[in-house]
Every structure is written in structure tokens, then in C-alpha cells.
Amino acid sequence: MSINNEEACAKKSRGRPKQFDRDQAVEQALELFWRHGYESTSLADLVDATGAKAPTLYAEFGNKEGLFRAAVERYLSRYVECYNRLLAQELPIADIVETYLRTSAEVFTDPENPAGCFMVCANAALSSSSNDLAEMLRNKHHAQETSLKICFDRKVKQGELLARTDTALLAKYIICLIEGMSAQAREGASREDLFGLLDTTMMVWPRLSQVGNKV
């Protein structure tokens, strides 16, 4: 090949459009929605963050809501599936709860991510006009509460928790604690601050785990 032909091929290669990377776009959208919420994130913000043109995003996701839903699924696959695997392990229930809360505190204060829980932050930032998205987030969030209850129910059957333990209330309590930790992280609480809340919870766990029983 002559030098001129090599130069022509190089110029042609440099002029090729950059191929759209769907996974990368979802990752960048997740970070943006996590940090600013759904309502405050514009299509222009998403175009700027992903480097893709608006028609490309529309073709791949349909609209901003479609991209948001993809970001939600990415978050769930990365974090919630990990939590569910933990809940399914045959460990003492106190160890499961402590690891579950500690993992949450680490995620909420990871310097590589926006602070807090994406699901909690996203739901709190939705306006009343986003009912479909709010319902979707509530269902996803309630699913995690259900997973906790299933874990507690299993421990009741195994005799580790007392037979009359109110597992639904206990699961709701843990979710409320996680939501509080998320809010604290968004307001600037450090990982050590959240670990302090966790340590306090585990101090009272022996009594807390007996909720619903007359002891």
C-alpha cells in the first residue's frame, strides 16, 4: 500500500462515527438520575452525559422514562440481587441483618456513587405527575421488604426466631432504618456515622427480633 493510500485509510477511520454503547449510556444515566432525580434531569443533560445524540437515545429507549427504567433495572441488578443472595444464605439471622445494613451503609457512602439509595432518592424527587414511575419504584421497593419478610419467616420455621414474631413489622422496621440511613447519607453523614447507627441497632437486636411475642 502506498503512503498516500495509508493516509487516506487513516483519515477515513478517524471520520467514522463513534458506535453507541448501550451499557455505558445506562451507567451514565443511572449516575445522573441518582444524583439529581428524574424530574431535574433533562434530555439535554442525558445527551451531554452519554455523548449520544437525542435521536439515538430515543431509538434505543423510547424516551427519558424508558432510559430511567433501564437505569432502575441496572441499579437493582447491581445491588438488590446481591442483597437477596445474602438473605438466602444459611447464616445466623443477626449476622444476615448486620451484613445487610453494613452493605447498605457502604453503598450509600461510596465515593464513586452519589450519596444515599438510588431508589429512595429517585422516589422522593418525583412529582405528582409521575404516578406511573412512582408506582413502579414503590413496587420495586416493596419487593425488597417482602424479601426480608421471607428471610425472617424462614428463620421462624427453623426455630431461630420465636413462633409469634411479627416478621412483616420486623421487615418494615429494617426498611425504614435503611431509608433513614439513605437520608442521612444525602445530608452528609459519613460511613462511620451510619456504622454507628448500625451498631446501635445490633445492640438492641435481641429484643427487637422478638417483636410480636410476649416475653
TrEMBL record:
Keyword field contains Transcription: yes
Signal peptide annotation: none
Lineage of origin: Bacteria, Pseudomonadati, Pseudomonadota, Gammaproteobacteria, Enterobacterales
One Pfam family it belongs to: TetR_C_13
Protein known as: TetR/AcrR family transcriptional regulator
Matching InterPro entries: Homeodomain-like_sf (IPR009057), HTH_TetR (IPR001647), Tet_transcr_reg_TetR-rel_C_sf (IPR036271), TetR_C (IPR011075)
Domain annotation HTH tetR-type: ranges: 19-79
DNA-binding region(s), chain positions: 42-61
Alphabetized UniProt keyword annotations: DNA-binding, Transcription, Transcription regulation
Database matches in PROSITE patterns: HTH_TETR_2
